[in-house]
Write a structure and sequence with these properties.
Helix content: 40-55%
Number of strands: 9
Radius of gyration: 25 Å
Low-confidence stretches: 1-13, 430-435
Largest sheet: 6 strands, parallel
Oligomer: single chain
Structural class: alpha/beta
Bound molecules: zinc ion
Amino acid sequence: MEVWTKYCCGKMMYVTVFSSVILLVIGLAIGLSVNNFKGSDALDSAPLIDGHNDLPFNIYEILNNNLDEFDFTKNLTDDKLWGKKACKSCFTDLPRLRKGKIGAQFWVAYVPCSSQYMDAVQLTMRQIDVIKRLVVKYSNDMQFVTEAKGIEEAWKNKKIGSMIGVEGGHSIDSSLAVLRLYYELGARYMTLTHSCNTPWADASTVNNGSVHNLTEFGEAVVHEMNRLGMLVDLSHVSHNVMRRVLSITKAPVIFSHSSVFSICKIYRNVPDDVLNMVKNNNGVVMVNFYSSFVNCNSGRNATMQDVIDHINYIRKLIGPDHVGIGADYDGVTSVPQGLEDVSKYPDLFDRLYESNVEPRWTKEDLEKLAGRNLIRVFKAVEGVRDSLAKTEHPRQDIINAKDISEDQKAINMKPGLCYTAKEWDGIKSTNKTSQ
Ligand SMILES: [Zn+2]
């Protein structure tokens, strides 16, 4: 008995001491990992998705889309064509995207409003083409994505999920057929306007006093996008168009690159009543970093804190489920101190986690901000597409000719005329074969 007891107690003590040591080690490990958690660690547990990058337009402007002359694998910070000194709107390359822990990116097929009623469709196709060629050329780092689940697949493959957004309704030339074909080519959002009105939707430049607001044809565009499973992007539209679309859309919407109007009264930003509508719609506002949109009239340079103020404002007003990131790199010429290029996203997430705002940012909320909110919206849009597939067919609406001629008159064009593009003037021909 004694022997047994002695043996028993000795063994138990050994087990107890051993277990205590193990528990201590585990406890310390958990404690250390909790204490060591940095906000940017959330970018290891959820893909960071940026809603808007205009690199494709820079490739057009600088290289006429000749990818033979573009080395995306190089850090271009001091490059003679792409560096800070040569190009005020260049912030992007693969090394810095990797440092920035980007998981997925909407690359923007943007063509200027000056191409409206001219060659906007052809030029948009050209920009869709260059995005697709870029992804193929850099397939070690990039993966083309057209579905919500593809974002996480690419991220698990350690590739940058690469999606296409078309920026500006002028790109469809008032044709639902063109819209449908952009979708077939892989475009997954369309911003309803850029800085010009289309004949069916007003841009933010009308400053809240609508010209057309959203016309009957504009409603058809939104409903066709719902049917296709294409995200409706309300950045750039007038505040009244935001309200109108939110009252008729069957699916959640996005703002791919917009900030808060209450903080910065620029009509590109989103007013509070619309933010509340976005909450009810289950959509997401992806915050733009552009200095002039996050810091107005202060007489000082914009900083990372300004961007944080916009993110926190949205989170406080409508919750952490409706805010995301849409930095607008390469589409702007000035970005805040601390967010100088695409390598800086992790610093933003670190700072958010460290900041003293109440409620504090949790890992889960940072993951939502990073990308989970956009994925949720994307999946919901696909869900609406699938449910409508049983009852709806491709729409055959044709825009009212009067709407087009009035819009042409408003921009001093002769109604009915389709102008020839002038973009070929001054462009040298090349015999090089491009990828
Ligand atoms: Zn834009």
